[in-house]
């Protein structure tokens, strides 16, 4: 008789018990192991992860799948002892819609001066702020992947002028009969396209994965290339941002505001200077989420492909880093 499938839930900072009912429903025969009591490590077939404890994955000899519970995998590849096994991420339309709602809110709350209206309302003052048509406001999205494209589409539908930046060239609707971008999206790519992209971002949205190439990309040099007073929205990762450079750019007026959902230190400590700066709006990494049932289903699909010898269809390209 073959051993039952064993799935371990590994995180150094999240309580994964919320995932158990969905995994029990998806894998009724499997052993699910959570927390400190992982049992014999040699039984574990799949690891469902968010910031897994460093070195632990390397101690699982039977491991066939490393499954991220998110779209990003940087929290897994940060492990210097990461074993050579397929790493899969979540690709989920609901996650795209959640991110779209967050990014549209973040753009609008700043461009339509919602902070000022909240202050006026609290003081019972009827006070108008300037009303600028969306098409006069240029939103740039760094990262035209699953999430960046979903956001671009929604912002275009509202009427914003939208541009995007990716690593590789994209076929746009203006120049190609078979475009991979929505009509109206102006595309830039690579290091050579970055300056032109940034020069037209009244709001810059970071939806990049965290890789060796993108770590620290939101820095003084980049801020200098944005229009003065630009709004930065970081929904990528905290380590995209050089924090001291953000504070400096806000103090100089080079940037006008920042909305940050991803921070290098999560939770952000109460004494962190970002909390005290009225131009910075912090949200606690809630831009979007994926339902446990979707994570369980994608884990099952990914395992099935790996067991069928088709890992390359679902595994992240670790050379590329995303
Ligand atoms: P994808 O892998 O689908 O897309 C990544 C995009 O970034 C691609 O367009 C890629 O270019 C581009 N890119 C990668 N490296 C570079 C580079 N060096 N220069 C320029 N462009 C680059 O990722 P997703 O859209 O699914 O997710 C993006 C990130 O969003 C995740 O990695 C995660 O960090 C973050 N995230 C945050 C959440 C939150 O709640 N705050 C929730 C979910 C995700 P190309 O198209 O050429 O390959
Ligand atoms: C993700 C995240 O990567 O939530 O999915 O940040």
What does this structure look like?
The protein has two domains: 6-92 and 290-313, Rossmann fold; 95-282, 3-Layer(aba) Sandwich (Rossmann fold). 30% of the residues lie in helices and 17% in strands. The chain is built from ten helices and twelve strands. It has helices at 20-26, 74-77, 93-111, 114-122, 146-158, 190-199, 220-224, 243-252, 273-276, 292-307, and strands spanning 6-11, 31-34, 46-50, 65-68, 87-88, 138-142, 161-166, 186-189, 203-206, 230-234, 255-260, 280-282. The strands form two sheets. The protein has a seven-stranded parallel β-sheet, with helices on both faces. The chain has a five-stranded parallel β-sheet with strand order 2-1-3-4-5, with helices on one face. α3 packs across α5. The protein is globular and about 70 Å long. The structure holds NADPH dihydro-nicotinamide-adenine-dinucleotide phosphate and oxalic acid. The site of oxalic acid has 3 residues, from loops. Residues 70-72 line the site of oxalic acid.
Concise synopsis of the structure shown:
The chain folds into two domains: 6-92 and 290-313, NAD(P)-binding Rossmann-like Domain (Rossmann fold, 3-Layer(aba) Sandwich); 95-282, NAD(P)-binding Rossmann-like Domain (Rossmann fold, 3-Layer(aba) Sandwich), CATH 3.40.50. 30% of the residues lie in helices and 17% in strands.
